[in-house]
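Fold this complex.
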Amino acid sequence: MINNTITAPKGFLAAGLHCGVKKSGKYDLGMIVCPGGANAAAVFTTNKIQSAAVQIAKKHVKNKKIYAVIVNSGNANACTGALGIKNAVKMCEQTALHIGEDPHTVLVASTGIIGEQLPIKTITDGIANVAGKLSAEKESGQNFTSAIMTTDTKPKMAARQIDISGVKVTIAGTVKGAGMIAPNMATTLCFITTDIAITKPLLNKALKNAIGNSLNKLTVDGHQSTNDTAILLASGSAGNRPVTSQCPRFKKFTNALNDLCDDLARQMAHDAEGATRIFKVVVNGAASQSDAAKACRAIADYPLVKCAIHGSDPNWGRIICAVGSSGVKLNTEKLSCKIGSVTVFHNGKPRKFDAQKVSKIVSQPEHTILVDLGAGKKNDFCYGCDLSAEYVSINADYHT
Amino acid sequence: MINNTITAPKGFLAAGLHCGVKKSGKYDLGMIVCPGGANAAAVFTTNKIQSAAVQIAKKHVKNKKIYAVIVNSGNANACTGALGIKNAVKMCEQTALHIGEDPHTVLVASTGIIGEQLPIKTITDGIANVAGKLSAEKESGQNFTSAIMTTDTKPKMAARQIDISGVKVTIAGTVKGAGMIAPNMATTLCFITTDIAITKPLLNKALKNAIGNSLNKLTVDGHQSTNDTAILLASGSAGNRPVTSQCPRFKKFTNALNDLCDDLARQMAHDAEGATRIFKVVVNGAASQSDAAKACRAIADYPLVKCAIHGSDPNWGRIICAVGSSGVKLNTEKLSCKIGSVTVFHNGKPRKFDAQKVSKIVSQPEHTILVDLGAGKKNDFCYGCDLSAEYVSINADYHT
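Structure:
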C-alpha cells in the first residue's frame, strides 16, 4: 500500500496547515471530509472536566451521517466556559459552510493548553484556507497528521487492507498524544477512516472493542486528559455488500481494526514524552477482571518501576511493592514475577538470577513484565513506558 | 533545648554505627533502648506485601513493655520468605541478649533494597558493637538518625517540650524517607520517644491521630513501601502523674505530638528524592471526606502538576484536569482554584491573572493550591513536592 494515511480509504479528503494557533509556525489545523457522508462512531474521555470540543462532538456524532471533522492543536478549548462552547460550535459552522452541509454533521476536536480561549478569528480564517486544500493525496493525509501533533516527536499513522468477499477494504488511522495518557480512553486524539460499508451500531461496537484493547491499555502518566477523542468514519465507498451483522466479515474487519489500533498504541507509547523504551505488563492469576487491570496499571504507573526500567535496572522489588500497594487480592505464597523469560520471584520467594541478563532484557526497546497474583484465574495487560529526565523538562517548560 | 534527638526525653539510650550492610561505609545499624521498659504504640504499612521486620514488630508491639528497637538500613528484608522472618527474629534475639530482656520485648525495623536476604552475620556482629555504644548523649541520638537514612540527604529530627501540671515532658522524633512515600502510612520509618507517663491505649490513640494528620498527608510518589513503620515509646520517666484519660493534659500532649509530626512531615517533603520545593493542597467543598482526600492526592501525585511546579509554571489547567480525572463528585459550575492568594479559575471559568506573580508564588519553597469542588462541605489537605530530573536519576541508578 503506497498511501498509509487517512486518505487511503476511498471516499475521504483531508488537509492540514498552520493557521496561527501555535506560535512555532507548526501545523495546527486539520480537516477530514467525507463528501458522501460517513457512518461515524466515537469514544470520548471519561474525565469529568470535558473540553468544549468533546461536549459538542458528543452531540453531533449522534447524527445519521457525518460529513467532516475539524481539529485544531495548540489550544485544548477546555475549562473555557460558555465562550468555549460557542467557539466549538463556530468551528463546526464554519466547516459546514465550506462543504455545504449542516453544522450538526461536523465533528470537532481540540488539543493543547487547557484554560485559554481559542483565537477564534485565526481559526475561522484558517478553516477557509484548509477547506481549499482538501485532497485525497497521501501528502494531504500527512498534513492532517502534522496538524494534530503537540509534543509528539513523530507522526503516528498506520493502515491495513483486507479482502471482504472479494472486495478490497482499507482502514487507516492516525493518533496524537504523548502525555496525559492513561487507560479508560487513553486516546488523546485518534482518527480512523475506512471505506467499508457497515451499519452504525456495528461500527460503534468495533471501535469500542478496538480502543479497549489498544489505546485504553496504554499508560504514560496515569491521567486522561479533558480532550480524549477517538473517531471512526466509514464511507462505505469500498463497494462491499454492507456488513449488517456479526458475521465472519465483521470479524475480519474487527481483527484488522484491532491490529491497526494496537499498532497506533505502540507508536504512541514509543513516542511518549521523554520515553526511551516501552514495556508490556501482563498480570495473571487475578481474583477479578478489575483486580487484573488495577495491578497492571499500578505497576506501569509506578514512578520507581518506570525509573528502574529507564536505568536498565532489574529491580523487581519495586514491581512487587507496586502490586502490594495496589490493594488487589493476592496470595503471598504464590505471588510470582518474570522479567522477559527470567523468573525473578517465585511463590513468594526471590530467585537467584543473572542480573546482567535481566538488565539486558530491560534495556530493549520493548520487554514484558509478567506477574502472577496466585489469587484466581483472571488476566489483563497494559503498555507503559520508562520515566526519563526529559519527561520532566518537557513538562516543566511546556507553558511558558 | 540543647538535645533535639531521640535521647532528649528521660529514660532512653541510643546508638548508631556502620556494621557493613551498606557498601558505602555509611551508618546502617541503630538501636534505641529504654532500660525501664516503655509503653509502646506503632502503626505499620497497609501494603499487602509486608517486610519480615514489619511482620515481627506487629507481633512484639502487643507486649506490655518494650525495651528496645533495632533498625538496619541498606536492606529492607522484604520479599525474603521464611529466611527473612528467621533473620528478623534473630535481630530481636541478639538485641535482647545484650540488654538482658526477652526477645519479644524488642521491635525491629528494616529499610533499603527489597528482595535480598540480610547479611545476618554482619548484622548480629553489629548488634554486639552498637549495644556497646549506647548512651543518652545527643551524639548517640544523631548517630541513630544517621543509621536509618537511605537516600535522605539530611537527617530529620525534631523535639518539643511541654509542661504537664508543673512537670517538664519531652517528645522527640526522627524519620527517614524520601521515595515510596504516600498517604495511608506515609511514614517509611519514624521513631518517637517521650518521657511522659501515659497508658498504652492513650498512647496508641495519640500516635494514630498524629500520623494521620502529618506523615499520612504526605505524598512523594504515590506509593507506600513494604516497610513503613512508626513507633512511639513512652518511658514514663518524666515524673508526671500518669495520663489515664482524655483529659486536658492528654490534649496538651497530643497537640505537641501533632506539631512534632507535622514538623517531621515537612522535613521529609523538603528532602523528598530530587525535590526542590514542596506544596500543600487544600480541597474544600467535597461531597464526602474520601472525595476530599482523593482529590488532594490526585493533584499532588499528578506528574504534570509536579513538573509544572518544578518549572515555576502557573499551569492551573493541569490541576483542574487532575481533579476531573480523579473521579470525585464535582460541580463544574462552581469549581474554583487558587494558587497562593491568586484566583486562577472561578465558578468553572478561567480568571485573568498576573502570570509572573503566580510563577513567583510557585517558585517559593512552599506554596498552597486551593481547590473548591463546589459539591459539598467536606475538606482535606496533603503535602506534595515537585518532580525533578534528579528524582529520575536517583531512582534509575539506585540498585546497580
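The two ends of chain A are 42 Å apart (CA to CA).
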